[in-house]
Write a structure and sequence with these properties.
The protein is an alpha+beta fold. It is 32% helix and 20% strand. The chain has 3 domains: 191 residues, 2-Layer Sandwich (Heat Shock Protein 90); 117 residues, Ribosomal Protein S5, domain 2; 171 residues, MutL, C-terminal domain, regulatory subdomain (Ribosomal Protein S8, Chain: A, domain 1, 2-Layer Sandwich), CATH 3.30.1370.100. The protein contains 18 helices and 22 strands. Strands 5-4-3-6-2-1-7-8 form an 8-stranded mixed β-sheet. A 5-stranded mixed β-sheet has the order 9-10-13-11-12, with helices on both faces. The protein has a 4-stranded antiparallel β-sheet with strand order 16-17-18-22. The N and C termini lie far apart (75 Å).
Length: 643
């Protein structure tokens, strides 16, 4: 019987490995940037076209490779980082498994140019699908250049699974930001379709964060610095008032490597306990330095998850250091037993007792008596001055007296009957009896039959500031106020965007809202759809937008919350079709502006909400496919009491 287990050919093994290493163009960007960093480069350029589908090129001025190394680097498990198994526990570089270049070359057209500093000529290699096409000597600058073209050209199924250019570009942007934030001492340049996206000169951590996130990031940052025997924590956290709905600007770096850790994230959230609104997420940029032998970074294919030896100690140190920084910079209250008394506010009158003002009031004063009584009161009051501690409002209590003993004679007025002199009673009766016409309110359609609705004394009741109960002839209907309002707003926004007739209210002072560069790219793409809802954009800069008009059902204070929620809902990219894009925007705005659970509604607001819900085209469910109301018949209630 012949054997059934066989060794895979190299090109097949490389394609299988590529499925783990290369998932999208952003994976290629990550591997090539990390190789450039490991080559001790001080200047790195990233050039992509069509979100990396057509071209991903990384140019660095690092050490370069010799002719032998240039050919050998495309072999599987060929690496210069480790020599023996023990080296896995003392890694200080990015890549070490030697799979990246071999996997990328198996599924793309690849071109490499490299030259070492001491060599006069370099090496130029062209590979297509793991096959060496050419290798020749060329005159090249110092460093290495990798150009990856036509990604997944030999695997059409994988290429079809790629998302739109907007989504793929966002993933590329994320990988570039992670590498650039981890290495502020390197000059990074990023080009997309010929346009310069980033130009980040070598700087410190704060300057690099501000350069990438742009906007008013500098004023949001609170420095964190803690040095212990097991960990060194540096970086910045953002002030609680700048917390966002999304978790986009949250970065952990361990030994200059970006990682994801839900455990450490929980430590940060514990430090912000009591400072954030429900559902808000703080932004942070934290750089952790630990001994290499205390972590294991080889537990995940993308190396974004690592294992710590003592997670509990790291949790406690991270939480305490962030909490200390928030208190030190007066962001959070803190108990300080070493208080400097010289910084206290000097209260010169802290030992003085307050003087009680004395006010004399004539209880016999009557403003409706004749002039003689008023004159007598004025003279009596002028003789008794007010004390220095009395206020002018006390003197205003008497019509015949004023402050500091000054009196003014009040002219006598006619009796109260004179107020009605000249009033034509016959004319008043004719006015009361004159017919008035009132515009009838339009009756909206109801979900229930007309004979079921109690037209006479219809009342609604709010239960626990969450549900609205409205009686009907067959029983009662219970409406979820938040879901019902979401359905009303959703259909209203969708109608405005469809017919393009949304009303807008102009702002007296335009709003300036600052966002990061990737958020600005999303807003720029959403701009036409947002304008159909009632937004008026005056201008858009590289780091902020100016809004001069907003929809009529949005207040000025809600604008930033609505746009922030919209950006959070579109983290994974903007839908391709215009209808899907409008639908997503309408759902996001309805979720942001709908009345929340726990809000008190007046009886009029309850009636309007119930009537507005049953006037919708689909009142049964919310925009997020949740039921908006339930009905209970009298028979069902009777059965409950019959038990």
């Amino acid at each position: 019987m012949s054997s059934i287990i066989q060794l895979l050919p190299d090109h097949v093994a490389n394609q299988i490995a590529a499925g783990e290493v290369v998932q999208r163009p952003a994976s290629v960007v990550k591997e090539l940037l990390e190789n450039a960093v490991d080559a001790d480069a001080t200047d790195i350029k990233l050039i992509i076209k069509d979100a990396g589908k057509s071209l991903v090129q990384v140019i660095d001025n690092g050490k370069g490779m010799s002719v032998t190394d240039a050919r050998l680097c495309f072999e599987r498990h060929a690496t210069s980082k480790i020599r023996q198994a023990e080296d896995l526990f003392s890694l200080c570089t990015k890549g070490f498994r030697g799979e990246a270049l071999a996997s990328i070359a198996a599924i793309a057209h690849m071109e490499m140019k490299t030259r070492q500093d001491q060599e006069e000529l370099g090496t130029h290699i062209v590979i297509e699908g793991s096959k060496f096409v050419s290798q020749e000597v060329a005159v090249l600058p110092k460093g290495t250049s990798f150009a990856v073209k036509n990604l997944f050209f030999n695997i059409p199924a994988r290429r079809n699974f790629l998302k739109s250019d907007t989504v793929e570009f966002r993933h590329v942007m994320d990988e570039f930001q992670r590498v650039a934030l981890a290495h502020p001492n390197i000059h990074f340049t990023f080009y997309h379709n010929g346009s310069e996206m980033y130009n980040l000169p070598a700087a410190g951590y704060r300057q690099r964060i501000v350069g990438i996130m742009s906007g008013k990031t500098n004023e949001k940052l609170v420095p964190v610095n803690e040095d212990t025997e097991i960990i060194n924590v540096q970086g910045f956290v953002c002030k609680p008032e700048f917390a966002k709905k999304s978790r986009g600007e949250q970065f952990f770096f361990v030994n200059d490597r970006f990682i994801k850790s839900g455990y450490l994230h929980h430590a940060v959230m514990a430090a912000y306990e009591g400072l954030l609104k429900e559902g808000s997420q703080p932004s942070y940029f934290l750089y952790l330095q630990v001994p290499p032998n205390t972590i294991d970074i080889n537990i995940h294919p993308t190396k974004t998850e690592i294992k710590f030896d003592d997670e509990q100690a790291l949790y406690a140190i991270l939480r305490a250091s962030i909490k200390h920084s928030l208190g030190q910079f007066n962001v959070a209250p803190v108990l300080d037993f070493d208080r400097d008394s010289n910084l206290d506010t000097p209260y010169h009158y802290k030992d003085l007792e307050a003087e009680t003002p004395t006010i004399q009031i004539d209880g016999n004063f009557n403003p409706f008596t004749d002039d003689k009584t008023n004159q007598h009161y004025s003279k009596a009051n002028s003789g008794s001055g007010y004390s220095s501690g009395s206020s002018s409002s006390s003197g205003a209590l008497h019509s015949g007296s004023s402050y500091s003993g000054y009196s003014k004679r009040v002219e006598p007025t006619a009796s109260w009957e004179s107020l009605y002199v000249g009033l034509d009673l016959d004319n008043a009766e004719s006015i009361e009896s004159s017919p008035f016409t009132f515009e009838n309110e339009e009756v909206t359609s109801s979900l229930f039959n007309d004979d079921e609705v109690e037209q006479a004394s219809q009342k609604t009741y709010q239960i626990h500031k969450k549900y609205i109960v409205s009686p009907i002839k067959s029983g009662m209907v219970i409406v979820d106020q938040q879901r019902a309002h979401q359905r009303i707003l959703y259909e209203q926004f969708l109608l405005n965007m469809t017919v393009n007739q949304a009303s807008s209210q102009q702002l007296l002072f335009p709003l300036n809202l600052f966002y990061s560069s990737d958020e600005m790219a999303l807003i720029e793409e959403l701009k036409p759809s947002l304008e159909t809802t009632g937004f008026v954009f005056e201008k858009a800069q590289t780091d902020h937008i100016v809004i001069s008009g907003i929809p009529v059902n949005i207040t000025e204070s809600e604008v930033s919350l609505v746009i922030e929620q919209l950006l959070s809902d579109l983290q994974e990219g903007i839908p391709a079709s215009s209808y899907s894009q409008n639908d997503t925007i309408a759902k996001s705005m309805a979720k942001s502006l709908a009345v929340k659970t726990g809000s008190y509604l007046t009886e009029t607001e309850q009636d309007n909400l119930v009537n507005g819900l049953f006037a919708c085209k689909d009142p049964n469910i919310s925009p997020f496919q949740k039921p908006t109301f339930i009905t209970m018949r009298v028979e069902d209630i009777d059965k409950k009491f019959a038990l």
